[in-house]
Amino acid sequence: MIRVLVVDDEALIRTGFQRILDAADGIEVVGAVSGGQALRTVRETRPDVVLLDIRMPDVDGLTVLSDIRRLPEPPVVAMLTTFDMDEYVETALRSGAAGFLLKDTDPEALPPAVQSLARGGTVLSPKVTRTVVDGYLNAGAQERPAKALERLTEREREVLVLIAEGLSNTDIAARLHLSTGTVKDHVSAILTKLEVSGRVQAALLAQQAGLLAEGTG
């Protein structure tokens, strides 16, 4: 059973997400709270996944994210955002966010997204990706993404495509018929070669470079 905590300042959003997730097999919503209650509720309920509003009036979502990530065994955190919140993405990425979901995400897509997060995958709503990729990567990258990808081996490019599709190391290992340890080594090499600090940044770079359109060849 995947334990989920929903954190949002709007009761309507909290209730909607809770109803959708509670109706899904294998998912239990252990709390739906505002930002000021988030950290205490995480400690009390020990969720596997937290869906966290990136900006709330009572407490900054990015501050909550940082506080959660400092816990001894922090849950996976994905940020809930609206279409115009891309200015906060870089900070969220560097603070350890595992993905971004629009608040108007298709209800049918929400349970699979939570399941992917619980398995260690990344989640990037397509609209969010298109909005943030230029502003985040173009502002920070020293070279074009396609140039950066030239550093990768063919196998590493295959692994990067699957990272960008949101697969966890275990899922990638099964897809490519590799051991999980080998996949971990590939992921580490990819992050080093691309000079990014996490899977979400690598996924965004792959998106911008058009690697998903190419597939694994």
Automatic annotation (TrEMBL):
Residues 145-210 form the HTH luxR-type domain. PANTHER family: TRANSCRIPTIONAL REGULATORY PROTEIN NARL-RELATED (PTHR43214:SF24), TWO-COMPONENT RESPONSE REGULATOR (PTHR43214). It comes from the Bacteria. This is Response regulator. The modification 4-aspartylphosphate is found at D53. The keyword DNA-binding applies. Keywords: DNA-binding, Phosphoprotein, Transcription, Transcription regulation. Residues 3-118 form the Response regulatory domain. SMART domains: HTH_LUXR (SM00421), REC (SM00448). It comes from Streptomyces nogalater. It holds the Pfam family GerE. InterPro entries: CheY-like_superfamily, NreC/VraR/RcsB-like_REC, Sig_transdc_resp-reg_C-effctor, Sig_transdc_resp-reg_receiver, Tscrpt_reg_LuxR_C, WalR-like.
